Every structure is written in C-alpha cells, then in structure tokens.
Amino acid sequence: MNKLLIWYGELITGKKLIKRGLLFLTPGMLWLILFLVLPGLILVVVSFAGRGAYGELVWEFGLGNYKRLIGYGIFGWTPDYLLILWRSVWVAVVTTALSVLLSYPLCFYIARKPPRTRYLWLTIVIIPFWTNMVIRTYAWFLILAPDMPLAKLAAFFKFIAPGMPLYPSAFAVYLGMISMFLPFVALPLFSSIERLDWTLVEAAQDLYASNTRVFMHAILPQTLPGLSVGIILTLVPAMGMFVVPDLLGGAKYMLVGNLIQQQFGTSRDWAFGAAISMGLMVLTMFSLYLYKRRNKDIDLL
Amino acid sequence: MKGLQLRGINKTYGNVKAVEDVSQEIHSGEFFTLLGPSGCGKTTLLRMIAGLELQDSGTIILEGEEITALPAIRRQINTVFQSYALFPHLNIFENVAFGLRSRKVPGPEVDKRVKKTLEMLELGQMTKRFPHQLSGGQNQRVALARALVNEPKVLLLDEPMSALDAKLRAQVQVELRRLQQKLGQTFILVTHDQDEALVVSDRIAVMKDGKIIQFGTPVEVYESPKNKFVAEFLGTANLIEGTYHDGQFHTELGIFELEKPPSWKKGLIAIRPEWIRISDTKPDKNGIRATVTEMIYRGTNLDLWLSPGPIRLRTSTYKNIQIGDQVWLDMAPKEIAVLNE
Ligand SMILES: Nc1ncnc2c1ncn2[C@@H]1O[C@H](COP(=O)(O)OP(=O)(O)O)[C@@H](O)[C@H]1O
Ligand SMILES: [Mg+2]
C-alpha cells in the first residue's frame, strides 16, 4: 500500500491515492444519499402505509395502495388508474417519436449552415428554455385561443365548434409536450449529426443504396449515440410530466404526473401518491430495460 | 465504344480551379493511375467519375453511353474510399454484400458471389468479424471486395494504401497489380506516390494544378518526362540548363552530345542519378570530371553527391569510393532526357 507508484505522471503512494479519491468522492456521495437514496427509501416505506381521516399518514402497512393502483377499489375493479398509466406511457412514447421525427430534418438543416449562423440557430432552439416552463405553457393558451388563426382554421374544417379554443385537448397536450422536449432530442442529436462522416453516406450511394438504406446503414448507426441520449432525456421526464397535461389537457387528458400531484396536493393521500410514484418508477425502469435490450451495443447509463 | 472517355472536364470551388479542362481516354481493362501532388485535383476528378461530385462542364462517356448526368447509384462504377468507409455496424460479409443487397440480388446468389470474392482476397475466414476487429490491411481488402463484388465497369481507388505501413504497401501494390491483371477490369487509381504509380499502372497521367500534364506508360513518363515538374515528381533528376547550338548542348558542366536535337535553343535536360555511370577512365562521349562531396549509404545502393553541379548519382556497383575522390562521369547521349516544355 505504501509502495510508490506513478499515477498519470505523478509520483505518489497507494495510500495517498485512496485518501484523495475518498476526499473527492465524499461530497457527491453524501449528496446522493441525503437527497436521493434516503427520500427514495422513505417513499418505498410510505407507499405501504395508509391514509387517516384527515389526510395524515397512518403507519399500518399493507398492499392496499398498490391494489388500488391496479384498479381494486371499494366498488370493485375499474381500469381508471391503469388507463392513466398506460396513457402516460403512450403520450411519452408518441412525444418522443414525434420529437425524433422533427429533430432529424431540423438538425440536418442546421448542420448544413456555415458555423457562424449554425450557433445562432442552435440558440434559437434553446431560447424557450430561458423562460419558465409554466409561462411557456400558458403561451400556448394565447396561440390556441379562439380568435387565433389555428383555432379558426380548426373551426373552418369543423374539428371544433367556432368560438372555441383548441385547449384543453389531446392535441394541445402533444403540442405542448413536443415543444417542451424537442430541444432535449435535437441538441444531442445535433452533436452526432455535426460529426457525421459523410463518406459513409457516399459509400452507400456508391453501392446503389436507396434513400431508406442510406439512412438505415449510413446515418442511423452514426447518430445512434446522440439519438439514445435524446430519447432517454425525453422519454423519462415525459412519463412524469404534469404541468403541460394539467394546463393544456385539463381533466380530459390526465396523466400519471397529474395523478401523483393530486395525491400529494388536493387529495392529501401521500401514501397512495407514493405508491403511484413507485409504479411510475418501475414503469420507467422497465422501458429503459426494454430499450437497452433492443440496442445492446450502446451504453445507456 | 469501350472504355471511359473524359471530355473537357472542369470543376471550380470558389476561385480554386480543382480540375481544369481534362480530356482523357481510359481503355477498357487497363490500370490507369492519376498521379500528382496533394491538392492537384485527383480526388475531385475521381469523384466526378464516380458521380459523387458534379462537374461544371464536360462529358463523361462509359462504354459509349453518356453518364454525365447520372447520379452515383445509377453508374456501374464502384469506389474504394481512402478511409475505406466500411459500415462499422455490419460484419465483413454484410459489408461486402451491401451493393448486391441494394440491387435486390437473390439471397443464394449474394451468398455465392460474396464468398467467392472474399476467398479471392483471402478474407474467407473473416466473414463474421466486424471492421474494427480487422487490421488496416485486411480492412483495405474488405473495401476492395465490397467494390469488386458488384463487377463494376470501372473500379476507382482513392489512395487506397495511404493508411498502410511502407512494407505492407509495397506488397499490396504488387498484389493489386496481379489482381487487376487476373480480372482484366478497368482500374483507376489515385495516388501521390510515384513508386506506387510505376509499380501498378499500365498508364499514368501526371496531374498538376488541375491539369493532366503528361500521360503514358510508366516507362514513357519516367524515361521521357516532358518537363521539369514531371522529371522531378517521378523520382529524382539532375536538371542541367544550357543552350543548343552547332549540334551540341553547351552547359556550365561541359559540352554534351544528344541523341536528337531539341526543339528549343535554350532549355533543360534531365538525367536520373541511376543513369549516370562512374568510371576511372574518360568515356568516349559526354564525360565529366567530378569530385565526390557526399556519400549516403542505402544498403541496396550508394548515393553520391558530386561537384560541380551538384550532381546526384546512384550506383550499386562501385564500392571503393571515398569523399574527395575524383572520378569520370559517363552521361551517354541515350541516357539523357530532353525536356521539351
Ligand atoms: N468540397 C470542396 N470545397 C472546396 N474546395 C475543394 C473541395 N474539394 C476539393 N477542393 C479543392 O480542390 C483542390 C483539389 O482537391 P483534391 O481533388 O482533393 O486534390 P487531391 O486529391 O489531388 O489532393 C484543392 O485545392 C482543394 O482545396
Ligand atoms: Mg485526394
């Protein structure tokens, strides 16, 4: 342990090296334990507790909350909560897929620009982040208001009654979600596309590849690292999103995020809220697992 | 009509004339090399033949059919890229099968043709491996196989050996030459390496600043360079300046007899270091008395620098020589190349 060794050009003893490593590691570990691991464990415990008459936690442990989550209530079985869970997954997947679909052309367009304007364009993509998420979502109220062109157009085609806004609706939720998450896909994807080796594209073309084949074999594999980062950065938070569906979807389009928020807020049922959170976490982990299994060759976490 | 014709090809990038008025005939079944220093437009010309770059003007005719306006996917031409550009996520078999699969060749035939090509290039054992698991030389052969399996009418190679080490390169050059002769296919190679060009080619076109300045067999361009650039770019040459009158070439080093009178009054002649013979006695013609000033031992031969001049000489026979020795140089008229431009 006390033998001298050379560590990246520095002459040092093994003991000192370990000490230094601990010094660097401790703050981060403490932070994680204090604010992630402990609350997580508390959440697990709470999810098995019950609710008192006035919304206080009752320390009687059982599987009641989980039974309720999968639909067994006092009035028999209902799929309500499972439906919300399923809908959340669906919204997250669709949001992610549409963001990816929009990001590819966007990134190629920006990557083709000369370097100076390129960063201007990227800034434009990021600018929405300079304002608060709630304010940005409220902005959609304005855009989707009854006397704005979008709503008028929708009314003209008889999608909605004239004089009605386009919210709350599933359409508004997707619009809000995609505008929220597009940069999370576009930015990592852009970093991959910017470094794209175009000779592979030319090689594919030289070998008679159709456009689909060029994309599948020359572009997709090269952009996969950026794409997977983008997908995870979108899929995971999109599953738990509550501001956008709350404001733009209202009661019509409740997602699991809203459900959890309700439990910890108006319903005052912390134990059930914790159980839903656990359910969401399991669902997220499961999606990531599926995703990782399909893309074995990329490192996710 | 067989072969490939380039007619008046031009290509400009901004204000750089990358390729300027290139007209060249490439015969069917020949190994043709574009040789020139870096930045002279070789790659650009090759890419226009491949259909990966559009010329500003000019026509390209392949086997009597104009292909000027056809994109790469519609040209029966395949390329071995300088970086090989193998698909990293596909194994060797699938890399080689790529072109056939693009053209929807039936599975069993793909199998047969890919296997045959891989066998031919001694890659039969590697089919399941991925490009990153192979050495540079093996990847180069995969790139070659991937292009050849499509049986292109013309195979283009852009500096395919630049990533190999010197020894392997020399070996691969000979193999490439043999392969081309065996297949009898048209190969067009781009290189800046004159040794490589001489070893592999049936004909060489020497390029400079976007123009082809001389073309011919390796012997023609090496032994009868047209101008100073070609003489110096292909190997080394002693360039001697002088004037021609009274049937003789008068220079600072002495008076020379030439085989044929040059087309000019004042100009340059070239003589390669290995064409000069060294002797103790005065030769009949074109003898020059010189002193050895520097010796470089190269194993297979000895390089001498002599004054006046300085003249460079390469000998593999004369061993008992020392710096300061006075010798006779024999520059026989038939060894002297007259530069006509
Ligand atoms: N895509 C391009 N854009 C601008 N200039 C280019 C481009 N490709 C080549 N050039 C210029 O054209 C000239 C010839 O290039 P290239 O054909 O690559 O030369 P070589 O292959 O002989 O080294 C060079 O001056 C190079 O800078
Ligand atoms: Mg080049």
Describe the structure.
The complex is a heterodimer of chains A (301) and B (341). Chain A has 12 helices and 6 strands. Chain A has 301 residues and is mostly helical. Chain A folds into 2 domains: 4-46, no CATH class; 73-294, MetI-like fold, CATH 1.10.3720. Chain A has a two-stranded antiparallel sheet with strand order 1-2. In chain A, strands 3-4 form a two-stranded antiparallel sheet. In chain A, strands 5-6 form a two-stranded antiparallel ribbon. In chain A, strand 5 (72-73) and strand 6 form a beta hairpin. The longest helix of chain A has 34 residues, at 14-47. By secondary structure, chain B is of the alpha+beta class. Chain B folds into 2 domains: 4-228, Rossmann fold (3-Layer(aba) Sandwich), CATH 3.40.50; 238-339, OB fold (Dihydrolipoamide Acetyltransferase, E2P) (Beta Barrel). Chain B has helices at 42-50, 92-102, 107-120, 136-148, 166-183, 194-200, 218-223, 228-233; strands spanning 4-13, 16-26, 31-35, 57-62, 65-66, 77-80, 154-158, 186-191, 203-208, 211-216, 238-245, 248-251, 255-256, 266-271, 277-279, 287-297, 302-307, 311-315, 326-330, 337-339. In chain B, the strands form 4 sheets. Chain B has a 6-stranded mixed beta sheet, sandwiched between helices. Chain B starts with a strand and ends with a strand. The model of chain B has no long low-confidence stretch (mean pLDDT 93). Bound molecules: adenosine-5'-diphosphate and magnesium ion.
Give a brief description.
The complex is a heterodimer of chains A (301) and B (341). Chain A has helices at 14-47, 64-69, 80-112, 115-126, 133-143, 149-156, 170-194, 198-206, 211-240, 243-249, 256-264, 270-294, and strands at 4-7, 10-13, 50-51, 57-58, 72-73, 76-77.
